């Protein structure tokens, strides 16, 4: 079957009949119908109508080097031809997993030298939780069970990862998540949690919420603190620079493992290779995903520091944990090639110098827009928070779904512009040009203006 010859409507009928989409209201999808994407190149995606969409989101924060790179296609195909699958369970290994683990240990913060692979960011967080549990058991402190995470966090959709996430609609009515061993603290969301404060003082205050919770629970019962360097799905929540050093100090003081979810921030999003470099974090465990392959194939990594791995390796015997696709050969080969391209083309350094100041300046032009209460960004991750009243910061009611309305207005005009709640988010590919950014912001403004009229 040649999909190009099928009408959009025919695709929509099939789509409705059988395909359950993630994070989707299927009743409204039935009415609206899906846009059917068929091709991507650079920062653009084309649909079956022949319309071109500029991808302001890098897919879902993953297509960091853009669509259609033939080198990645070749890396995957060559590996499939040579060795299409290899398990790593029974004293077996293969070159692309070994080389990727070595490469990661070279480019990550010092001391993060032991790499466990799986397929998704959610699974990387599951692995991290299992490693934390195993570590404290082996350290003779099994009573360290509680994991502290943050409100508005997103760590994935499996049972534990959803529990770590601080997004209440994910918990569902009467469900058993969040699991009782997880607790959430307020986050470094200055617009809502520290209005009017000096940002650096707010960073210290926000970090003190961690210490407060540790003391409430009892330090001997706390296992780990899980956090993203900057929160992406929470609506581009970027902490002040004082926040992370203070968090690090508190974790050290109470001997709590610091687990940093770099699934979005990793691979250049902040303008540094990892958010941990940007904010000066030294994690005990780190999760990577998405940008590790620029979204060409599914792969994630959970990296253990020497401190954690040494105990697991020396004392732990067999760690009964793993996945069929841990270290899948083609996924690892694509990740290696993706990193090679990023290094050879100085993609992160160029983004930092050439794009990020421009991106930030463009975002700042929305200060004063009648719908926008807050403008925030780190690197190429930006958020424009929609409010009903800019003076009182009153939000629109949840049911109004104003963010979704704005996304729809943008998509009609050819821009993928995401609503994270009422925050409109942009995370363009790191290879976008300034001219393409002009288009992104032009359409974003039109979409916000049209939304202001519709809700005015
Ligand atoms: N961690 C963070 C910070 C994320 O943003 C996401 C997904 O958006 C995940 C974990 C989950 O990754 P995946 O969707 O690959 O399971």
TrEMBL record:
Keywords: Aminotransferase, Pyridoxal phosphate, Transferase
CDD domains (UniProt xref): OAT_like
Co-factor requirement: pyridoxal 5'-phosphate
Cited InterPro entries: Aminotrans_3 (IPR005814), Aminotrans_3_PPA_site (IPR049704), PyrdxlP-dep_Trfase (IPR015424), PyrdxlP-dep_Trfase_major (IPR015421), PyrdxlP-dep_Trfase_small (IPR015422)
Residue ranges crossing the lipid bilayer per the database entry: none
GO molecular function, one term: transaminase activity
PANTHER family: AMINOTRANSFERASE, AMINOTRANSFERASE CLASS-III
Entry similarity comment: Belongs to the class-III pyridoxal-phosphate-dependent aminotransferase family.
Name under which the protein is recorded: Aminotransferase
């Amino acid at each position: 079957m040649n999909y190009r010859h099928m009408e959009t409507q025919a695709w929509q009928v099939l789509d409705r009949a059988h395909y359950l989409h993630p994070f989707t209201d299927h009743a409204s999808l039935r009415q609206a119908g899906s846009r059917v994407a068929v091709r991507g190149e650079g920062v653009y995606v084309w649909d079956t109508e022949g319309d071109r969409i500029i991808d302001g989101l890098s897919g879902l924060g993953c297509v960091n080097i853009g669509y259609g790179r033939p080198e990645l296609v070749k890396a995957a195909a060559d590996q499939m031809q040579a060795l299409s699958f290899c398990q790593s369970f029974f004293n077996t290994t293969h070159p692309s997993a070994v080389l990727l683990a070595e490469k990661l240990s070279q480019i990550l913060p010092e001391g993060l030298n032991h790499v466990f692979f799986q397929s998704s960011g959610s699974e990387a967080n599951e692995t991290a939780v299992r490693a934390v549990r195993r570590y404290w058991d082996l350290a003779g402190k099994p009573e360290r069970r509680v994991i502290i995470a943050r409100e508005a966090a997103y760590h994935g959709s499996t049972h534990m990862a959803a529990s770590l996430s601080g997004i209440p609609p994910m918990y569902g009515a009467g469900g058993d998540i969040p699991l009782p061993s997880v607790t959430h603290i307020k986050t470094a969301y200055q617009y809502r949690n520290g209005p009017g404060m000096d940002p650096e003082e707010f960073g210290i205050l926000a970090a003190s919420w961690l210490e407060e919770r540790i003391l409430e629970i009892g330090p001997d019962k706390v296992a780990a603190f899980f956090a993203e360097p900057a929160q992406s799905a929470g609506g581009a929540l970027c902490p002040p620079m004082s926040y992370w050093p203070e968090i690090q100090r508190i974790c050290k003081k109470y001997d709590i493992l610091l687990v940093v979810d770099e699934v979005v921030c990793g691979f250049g999003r902040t303008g540094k290779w990892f958010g941990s470099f940007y904010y000066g974090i030294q994690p005990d465990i780190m999760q990577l995903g998405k940008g590790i392959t620029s979204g060409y194939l599914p792969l994630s990594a959970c990296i253990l520091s020497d401190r954690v791995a040494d105990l697991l390796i020396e004392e732990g015997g067999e760690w009964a944990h793993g996945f069929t696709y841990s270290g899948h050969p083609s996924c690892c080969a694509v990740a290696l090639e993706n990193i090679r391209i990023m290094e050879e083309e100085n993609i992160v350094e160029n983004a930092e110098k050439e794009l990020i100041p421009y991106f930030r300046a463009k975002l700042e032009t929305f200060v004063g827009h009648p719908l926008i209460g807050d403008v925030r960004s780190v690197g190429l991750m930006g958020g424009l928070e929609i409010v009903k009243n800019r003076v009182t910061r009153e939000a629109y009611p949840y049911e109004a779904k104003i963010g979704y309305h704005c996304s729809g207005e943008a998509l009609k005009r050819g821009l993928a512009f995401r609503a994270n709640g009422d925050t409109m988010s942009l995370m363009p590919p790191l290879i976008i040009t300034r001219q393409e950014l002009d288009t992104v912001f032009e359409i974003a403004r039109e979409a916000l203006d049209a939304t202001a009229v519709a809700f005015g």
